[in-house]
C-alpha cells in the first residue's frame, strides 16, 4: 500500500523545535536534518536517504508527551551520526523497487497536495514491503544507537525514562505474529538488554536546567490538536469539547472539526475567534485561508494567505497556499501574481509537488506551455513516474529554445528516465 506525507508549516516548525536540543547535544546543531511525517496510523520511525528522519502520524499521536517523541528522535538521530545507513548500503541495493530505495525516498521527500481530510495532503510514497526489508537494523546497530541516544537525551536535559516509556509500548508486541506487529518492532528489534540499559540510564539521571526551546509545550500541544483534528473523527472530537470551553486549543479543535464536517460558517466563526486571540499568528491566518479556499471563497482566502505570508515570509508552504488561492481566483492579475509567488515558493522548496502542479498551471494560463511541460515533468519525476516525466520533458523540448534552461532541465529528466525505466521485453 502506498503511503504519503503530511505537509504543514506549523507542524514542521514545531517538530524542528522538538529536535533542536537533541541536535545541539549531538554536536550537529548547524547541520541540516530534515523531518518528514508519514501519513500512516501504525507506530514507526526510521531514517532514509541521508539526514532524513521519517515519523509516522500514528507514532506521534501515541506519544504521551514531547519527551517521548524526543526519545524516538534521539534514537533515529543516532543512526545518522553513527553512520548506520552506509552499513546498510548492500541492503538498499537489493530493494524491490524500480530503482532501489533512493527513488522511494525521492518520492517521500516530495511534498503533498493539500487536502482537508489529511490536514495538508499526501503523495504516493514508501511501500510497506520496502520499509520492512530495507530499514531493518542489526542488534549491534540498535545497541550503538541506544548508547548514543542516551548521551543526546541527557545533553538535552531529557531523562532517558522517556525511552523506557517508549519501549514499554512495544514490549509485548514481539510475541505477536509479524502481520500484527507495528513496523517499529520489525525495524528496531527489542531485547531485554536494551530495555534494562535504558532503565539503568534513567535511574542515574540527575535533572538540570531545562534546555527546551521557549514555549515548546504550547506549540507541541497545538501540533497534537492539529493531528487529532485532521486525522481523527470530527464528530468524536467535537463531543470531547464542552460548549462552554472557549480556550484557545479547544477553539482550534472546533474550527478544524467544523471544517471537516463540513460546516463552513461555524468553522469560520471559530477561526476568527482564534485570530482575535492571536492576531499576529501566521499559522492561524493560514488555516483561515485553507478553510475559505476549500469552502469555495478564493477571494477571501487570498487575503488570509497573504496576511499569513506577510507574517511568515520564509515559509514556503504558506507561499504555496497563497499561490494556490490566487490561481483559484482565476483573474488575469491574480494568475500573473500567482506565477511570481509560486516561483518563490518553488525556489525555497523544489520538492513540493503541489507547488509544482500549481506552477505548471500558472505557466499554462500565462501562455508558457513549454515551461508548464518542464515543471510537470519534474513533478512526475519526483513521484517516480518516469514514463510520464519523459513524455512531458520531450514535449517541453519541442516547445522551448534548444539549450535554454528549461530545455536543459528537460534533457536531464529524460536522461534519468532512460536509466531507471525498465526496458520493454520483446
What portion of the residues fall into strands of 2 or more residues? under 5%
Distance between the termini: 30 Å
Helix content: 55-70%
Rg from alpha-carbon coordinates: 23 Å
The average pLDDT score comes to: 86
- Alpha-beta content class: mainly alpha
Shape: globular
Widest sheet, order of strands: 1-2-4-3
Number of β-strand runs: 4
- CATH architecture verdict of the largest domain: 2-Layer Sandwich
Biggest beta sheet summary: 4 strands, mixed
Counting structural domains, the number is: 2
Give the tags:
426 residues; mainly alpha; Zincin-like; Serine Threonine Protein Phosphatase 5, Tetratricopeptide repeat; 2 domains; 4-stranded mixed β-sheet; 4 strands; 4% strand; globular
How would you explain this protein's 3D organization?
It is a single chain. The protein contains 23 helices and four strands. The chain is mainly α. It folds into two domains: 5-203, Zincin-like, CATH 3.30.2010.10; 242-420, Tetratricopeptide repeat domain (Serine Threonine Protein Phosphatase 5, Tetratricopeptide repeat, Alpha Horseshoe). Strands 1-2-4-3 form a four-stranded mixed beta sheet. A hairpin with a 4-residue loop joins strand 3 and strand 4 (52-56). Helix 1 (9-26) packs across helix 12 (216-231) and helix 3 (66-81) crosses helix 8. It is globular, with a radius of gyration of 23 Å. It starts with a strand and ends in a 6-residue tail after the last helix. 46% of the residues are buried.
Amino acid at each position: 500500500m502506498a503511503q504519503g506525507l503530511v505537509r504543514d508549516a506549523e507542524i514542521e516548525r514545531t517538530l524542528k523545535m522538538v529536535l533542536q536540543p537533541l541536535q545541539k547535544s549531538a554536536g550537529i546543531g548547524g547541520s541540516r536534518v530534515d523531518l518528514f511525517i508519514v501519513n500512516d496510523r501504525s507506530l514507526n520511525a526510521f531514517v532514509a536517504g541521508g539526514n532524513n528522519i521519517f515519523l509516522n502520524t500514528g507514532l506521534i499521536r501515541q506519544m504521551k508527551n514531547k519527551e517521548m517523541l524526543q526519545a524516538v528522535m534521539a534514537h533515529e538521530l543516532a543512526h545518522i551520526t553513527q553512520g548506520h545507513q552506509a552499513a546498510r548500503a548492500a541492503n538498499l541495493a537489493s530493494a524491490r523497487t524500480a530503482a532501489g530505495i533512493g527513488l522511494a525516498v525521492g518520492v517521500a521527500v516530495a511534498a503533498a497536495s493539500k487536502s482537508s481530510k489529511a490536514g495538508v495532503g499526501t503523495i504516493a510514497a514508501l511501500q510497506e514491503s520496502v520499509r520492512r526489508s530495507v530499514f531493518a537494523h542489526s542488534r549491534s546497530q540498535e545497541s550503538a544507537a541506544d548508547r548514543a541516544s542516551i548521551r543526546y537525551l541527557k545533553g538535552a536535559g531529557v531523562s532517558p525514562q522517556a525511552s523506557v516509556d517508549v519501549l514499554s509500548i512495544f514490549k509485548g508486541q514481539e510475541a505477536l505474529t509479524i502481520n500484527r506487529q507495528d513496523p517499529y518492532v520489525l525495524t528496531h528489534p527489542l531485547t531485554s538488554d536494551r530495555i534494562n540499559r535504558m532503565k539503568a540510564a534513567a535511574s542515574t539521571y540527575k535533572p538540570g536546567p531545562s534546555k527546551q526551546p521557549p514555549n515548546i509545550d504550547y506549540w507541541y500541544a497545538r501540533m497534537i490538536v492539529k493531528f487529532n483534528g485532521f486525522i481523527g473523527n470530527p464528530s468524536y472530537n467535537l463531543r470531547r469539547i464542552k460548549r462552554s470551553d472557549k480556550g484557545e486549543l479547544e477553539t482550534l479543535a472546533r474550527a478544524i472539526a467544523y471544517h471537516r464536517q463540513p460546516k463552513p460558517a461555524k468553522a469560520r466563526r471559530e477561526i476568527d475567534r482564534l485570530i482575535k486571540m492571536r492576531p499576529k499568528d501566521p499559522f492561524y491566518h493560514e488555516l483561515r485561508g485553507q478553510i475559505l479556499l476549500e469552502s469555495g471563497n478564493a477571494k477571501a482566502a487570498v487575503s488570509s494567505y497573504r496576511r499569513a505570508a506577510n507574517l511568515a515570509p520564509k515559509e514556503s508552504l504558506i507561499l504555496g497556499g497563497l499561490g494556490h488561492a490566487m490561481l483559484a481566483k482565476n483573474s488575469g492579475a491574480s494568475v500573473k501574481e500567482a506565477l511570481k509567488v509560486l516561483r518563490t515558493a518553488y525556489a525555497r522548496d523544489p520538492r513540493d509537488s503541489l507547488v509544482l502542479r500549481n506552477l505548471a498551471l500558472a505557466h499554462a494560463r500565462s501562455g508558457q506551455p513549454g515551461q508548464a511541460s518542464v515543471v510537470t515533468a519534474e513533478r512526475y519525476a519526483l513521484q517516480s513516474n518516469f514514463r510520464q516525466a519523459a513524455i512531458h520533458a520531450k514535449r517541453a523540448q519541442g516547445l522551448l529554445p534548444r539549450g535554454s534552461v528549461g530545455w536543459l532541465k528537460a534533457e536531464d529528466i529524460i536522461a534519468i528516465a532512460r536509466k531507471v525505466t525498465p526496458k520493454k521485453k520483446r
